[in-house]
Amino acid sequence: MRTVGVEEELLVVDPAGVPVPLAPEALEVAARRGEGETVGEHDRAQQSDAAPDTDAAGAPAGPRLVPELKEQQIELGTRVCRELDEVAAELRHWRSRADAAAATVGARVAALASSPVAVEPETTPGERYAQTVEVFGLTAAEVLTCGCHVHVSVDDDEEGVAVLDRIRVWLPVLTALTTNSPFWSGRDTGYASFRSQVWNRWPSAGPNAVFGTPARYHQLIAELVATETVLDEGMVYFDARLSATWPTVEVRVSDVALRVEDAVLLAGLVRGLVETAAREWRSGVPAPEVRTEVLRVAGWRAGRSGLTGDLVDPRTGQPAPAAEVVTALVEHVRPALGDSGDTERVEAGIADLLRRGTGAILQREVFDETGDPAAVVRAAVAATHGD
Length: 387
Hints:
ATP binding, 387 residues, GCS2, single chain, globular, Putative glutamate--cysteine ligase 2, Creatine Kinase, Chain A, domain 2, 47% helix, 15 helices, 11 strands
């Protein structure tokens, strides 16, 4: 069974619901507990080519709570998991530990992919973060978005690139399933995921063409770094990529999910996609030759309406109701879900999500009732922790 791990970025907010730049202080507390990494330690780690230590099972060892680009963010990372129950337990545990660390400095954490409240983002201290803002200007200075990245194990780069070539057409559906950022600068954007719009300002972000071979993949990475536009390989922000540190495919298209169960559903679907793609590759099924421009439009449409409108159906390239396209995704990965024991959980998660809607729906419902962006944040804090 392929292993899976999840990284989530969370907003740090005060009791009133306003994002506050208290992540460095909260992480100092977490570090003293052995759960977190200080800003200085993380900055040094980012500049090092050395892989992090691992435990006996090959999972990353050490802190699970780390800084992000903005002082209003904390990132968590699960250990390597085999079962979706493990993913759920890890996410609940580390959301709780991040919240406990934030509470020591008078704050909470919320799984929101953007802030409903207008806020001035403050850049985390550190050489790399300062360089990022200097190079990318307003794109880096004003960004305050929280995503979810899912890692799934692959045997080697050959299998990994074959997977990337075959899952790319389905990634916009994952964006639609996790939409959780309808607000920006205190106003409704009209998008279900405005994070996906903001994220695509980065020059290396978005979908890519079929790679074909690991050599072509790594050649492209080297060519991007050689432009001296991105700082290093870590800033190649493809929708999905090979991890530079772990033997995994990393899928990066999703908003952070408001509810833990939606993040677990995402992890199950990504693992199913990776396994399905690997089987197709071994069976000689060619990668779909869909133009990158079409995928960019499909991703835009997914971020615009989420599950409330039409999505681009990867099978036809034509619009179809979101529920129909989501059902097609489940059918596409059903054999892999069955072999990993994930079918029942994924089907139940899809049914629940289609019934109640994504985090974007909840945010708008609260705002329609209250007219108060801060009330949206407070409701999100409760949902983040299962209340």
